[in-house]
Amino acid sequence: MSNAPTALSLDDVHVRFPVAADWRGRPNRYAHALNGVTLNVRKGETLGIVGESGCGKTTLANLLMGLVKPTRGCFDRGGASLQIVFQDPQSSLDPRLPVWKLIMEPVMVNRRSGSRALRAQAAVLAQQVGLRPEHLDRYPHEFSGGQRQRIAIARALSAEPDVIVLDEPTSALDISVQAQILNLLQELRAERLLSYVLISHNVSVVRHMCDRVAVMYLGQIVEIGAALDVFAAPAHPYTRLLLESVPRIGAPFLEGVPQDTELPGNRHLPQGCFFRSRCPLATAGCELPQAMAEAGDSVVGHKCRCHVRCKKEER
Ligand SMILES: Nc1ncnc2c1ncn2[C@@H]1O[C@H](COP(=O)(O)OP(=O)(O)OP(=O)(O)O)[C@@H](O)[C@H]1O
Is the ipTM of this complex over 0.90? Predict the structure, then answer.
């Protein structure tokens, strides 16, 4: 997998959103959602994106789907076609359309096939995702959450994408249904040689599904590597805390972080390492900007953005 060709790549991508304007209406304050993301997605892999709320995961998904443009840097789709599966199938499916039209909608805009041919195609896709022929003429409200997500997956497949962005694809589903949907996604990836970008705050879903994982903090990737390596030996202090923190009601997301430390906002980006103010390993050297460099475990492709935890920096 590490030698697989690249499906798409991002080079030093920045995205900022205007959040305030001067008296002439010109933006003068920004939310810095992505701050230099460099990343490639390989053909046939599942790349996981993890990080706490507000780190830029949705902005990254929207960028991949062409819904937001980089303010700086380059996004090269390399000719790949992309589709997305959203978290909540309840709101992502048009309630007025029957299942077969929902499934074929992404291609109906471009193709002039007759409705009989489209329906036949929908039947094949429905069967591949575990729906039955009699489901084709029903409407979304007649289905359970898991079945609706199967419809959303069939819909994404109908456009024959190279890459599917999975934005929290199972977090709206009952635990018992989550595994079925994840297994279905795994089977479809193998059958169709798809690439997935799996965005999730659920570390165990990423561990189960992904070949590689990228950890985001305040719009930057702070660690990337084979999922096995990152989970076995997390290098960046943020990743360590993220993996150690067990979500509990009322508990802070990062339990190892002292509670009197300030969470830096993305309107005034910190100098140096973005995680510095919350980091248990912070030293004077963290006041300098941190570059991605090989993590100290000598595993090829395992990189992190921390001078304390890296072999040497690639400046
Ligand atoms: N359209 C927008 N206008 C202003 N700020 C935005 C906009 N979209 C995102 N942001 C800001 O950019 C940052 C990243 O947001 P994003 O939604 O990408 O994070 P996230 O990791 O997906 O969070 P969550 O898991 O809560 O959805 C946040 O601080 C957010 O407030």
Answer: yes
